[in-house]
Amino acid sequence: MRKPIIAGNWKMFKTRDEALNFMYQVNEKMPSNKLVDSVVCAQFTVLRDLVKRQGDELKIGAQNMHFADEGAYTGEVSGLMIKSIGVAYVIIGHSERRAMFNETDSDINKKLHKAFEVELNPILCVGESLEERENNLTEKKIKDQLVADLANLTKDQVRDLVIAYEPIWAIGTGKTATSQIADETCGFIRKTIEELYDKETSEAIRIQYGGSVKTSNIDELMSMPNIDGALIGGASLKADDFITLVNAAIK
Ligand code: PGA
Asked: Which of 91, 173, 231 has the most ligand 1 atoms within 8 A of CB, as the residue to mutate?
């Protein structure tokens, strides 16, 4: 049995006061981490404040990291630095970073290797554009991303990886993939992991769906066999909704 994992992706939202206010509202209401992993991925400026105030059942994640430990990379933050302030997770290869900040599969591969080296838990994002889906290129796109992003990772590492399937056309658009489409593509990711590694690894790896997940569709998505959780943008910003989303994962 794979433990569900619900992660909020706050993107570039929330001032320090807003972030702390959220924390005070959710802390007492998070279910046991024996039943579900609950994660909030916040922007760099509030990470330390959140780590200091996180309750026992909630973990904090970053939304990006650099693959070098340190160096002349103005404006960047390293995985080692994130780890040193007590952050547990890091999102890698979100489609917004791939599209707007020119992140390549080769960068993403280096970031994944570094995340494992410094003992951060990576959440790798993959997914197709609307054009790719309409041209039947979804499986090709996702397989190409997985092959390149996971290059030279060991099966022990991949077993601990979380993959978020996020169709680009469903992110922030209010257009959720149907639970069938989401499950089918998460199943394809699992099959690809089996081909690249083995059955045991593919059965252990946790695969989230992301893209306009909200309180009204989480139950159906979580009932699908290949979906082990969700990566949630907009709906994770409200404390009440986040509490509902996390609890939906253990029903
Ligand atoms: P959304 O974002 O839930 O607002 O669609 C998901 C994501 O980008 O991770």
From this structure: 231
